[in-house]
Amino acid sequence: MIKKTKFIISCCITLLLAFSNVFAANKYLEAGIPASDRQWNGVDYLEAADKFSKGIVDLPTMADKEGTALFKRIVSVSNLELCKGKTTSPEIKIKTYMGILAGAQKIFIMYIEKRKYSEKMNDEISAFSSFILDAAVVGENVVNEFIPTIPKNDANYDKRMAGISKVGDAFTQIFVAAERSLSDTNFTSSNINTIAIAMSRTLPVLKSRFSANFKEELKIKLTSRYKEATDATLKNVLNAMINELAPSSV
After folding, report:
1. Are 178 and 195 spatial neighbours (Cβ–Cβ below 8 Å)?
2. DSSP code of 149?
3. So what's the pLDDT on residue 249?
4. How far apart are CA 16 and CA 168, in angstroms?
5. Is residue 72 left, alpha or beta, with left meaning phi > 0 and alpha meaning psi from -120 to 50?
6. CA dihedral 184, 185, 188, 191 (to 10 degrees)
7. What digits encode the pLDDT tens for the residues 24-69?
8. What is the pLDDT of residues 71-87, one digit of tens each?
9. Whole-number Å distance between alpha carbons of 200 and 213
10. What's the count of helices (H) and strands (E) in the chain, helices before strands?
11. What residue spans define the domains of the chain?
């Protein structure tokens, strides 16, 4: 009887522990960070950025389950689905996009700063770089849809068009930063390949915003990297980008 009672108690304890794990508090939700199991919008990114910047909760990393889920949400291109919807107006698309990009960039900078002074988060930063490049492609499409909707008799037409013209500069700078990161000695070959593959994936669209001089500069740099590369995957990706910039193989 005593053995049976101990067994029942043991089973109850095991069951209680299991339930306590199921209902365990999520530190990110408690800190006011939006849930990771739904799409985020610009407000969500800005709210998260605010909490991270104030130190209410640490930046999520892929070192634990909760952190992985949240980080993957932050760098998920699915958050930009509204910007790609056929039934969504160009004005809503561009407002949504600008909100998401503003919040995402704030968070990205925090990762870069944290890595610089305390922790090395190579996987997170390379994944974030990939997300920023993919987001730039969505932005290019959003801007191209929005431009025709601006009335030429709009009192702020010149000002609005001047702002849009800066988009090319922004996309160029994103690509410049990505290319430079391929020299980061802290990155593993996997990290470098993640960024290089994202560059190759987005170059066909983003190159339309690049100046002729930058295209030539980029081609020269990629050619140099190709000659020095030893990783087969990286060489293939670099070669694809070189061909994209000029119809000739290395």
Report:
1. yes
2. G
3. 41
4. 57
5. alpha
6. 0
7. 569 999 999 999 999 999 999 999 999 999 999 999 999 999 999 9
8. 999 999 999 999 998 89
9. 19
10. 11, 0
11. 2-245
